[in-house]
Here is the input.
Amino acid sequence: MIHPDKIGIEAKKKEDENFKFRSYLKGHADEDELDKQFARLHKELFADYDCSKCRNCCKMYKGSIPEEDIEKDAEYLGITKAQFIDFFLEKGEHGIGYQTKHKPCDFLQEDGSCKLGDCKPDNCKKYPYTDQPERLWSLLGMLDTITICPVAFEIFERLKKEYGFRRR
Ligand code: SF4
Ligand code: SF4
Here is the structure.
């Protein structure tokens, strides 16, 4: 598995190849079969991976906090809703929803855990979305994800082997 600090450089080297593989999958992969392959590799690779040693997903994005989570998040931290917004959040892009004020995410702690514990947003729990359905229709987003997440990068590399894809 690629070291989290090297993922940007390694993904850049494979940028063309990955784009071509994405086009190859669009033309050749069966939607349901691809979802099963992603889900299997996700399970296998995350079983042996300690995300607390990486946390690129919390370092390289601002945390995106859904409006409907704010009350429970504030309660979890023992502060008011207004304090929660004031201390940690700003309006999201185009004024939609909220995001943390800083990148790395303000809720990332020294030990790699999330200050929001189990209250962390669903989008964080699901990241990198490699076990979610409709992968065939999410491959463009996947090209971004593999520049951040070492496990997603490795899943893409394994898929290339399984499809017998050669750089062309
Ligand atoms: S989900 Fe991916 S980017 Fe996030 S901590 Fe785990 S391996 Fe790293
Ligand atoms: S809310 Fe927690 S899990 Fe989500 S990006 Fe911030 S630190 Fe990471």
Notes: The longest strand covers residues 89-91. The CA atoms of residues 56 and 148 lie 6 Å apart. The radius of gyration is 18 Å.
